[in-house]
Amino acid sequence: MVRITVLLLISLFIPAFSQPEILIKDPWVRAVPPTMNMTAGYMVIENKGDQDDYLIGIESDISKMADLHVTVEENNVVKMKHIKKLKIPARSKVELKPGGYHIMFMKLNKKLLPGKKARIILIFEKSGKKVVEAEVKMSN
Ligand SMILES: [Cu+2]
Q1: Which range of residues forms the domain containing residue 130?
Q2: How many domains does the chain have?
Q3: 16 CA distance to ligand 1 middle (Å)
Q4: pTM
Q5: What is the DSSP string of 53-65?
């Protein structure tokens, strides 16, 4: 009986100590003229836990499509590449910023004027969905 209790305690408590813990900081979306139908979003994704996690999907109320991109330079040409999943290492953080990783919002369904808000849902492999309200502004 004692051994069963100990095993139960171990199985109950071990997972709690080895989990990712995702925090999203300073989310913002670049304001664009109403004639443009795409824009980018940025934020800092921090993982305070001791297990890696992955950003695997993005949804929002401002566009029909949202993908994760990275800006890269190849042979002096700047391009954007689609990324299927982004690793957020344990006890570390990944910054989505102009010129690097960003969320590409395509087929916008709202006017993104400065001062507006965008609701972004980030889907993580282990932590599930995280909802953030991002500020729409010209630049950081
Ligand atoms: Cu892009």
Answers
A1: 2-137
A2: 1
A3: 36
A4: 0.85
A5: EEEEEEEESSEEE
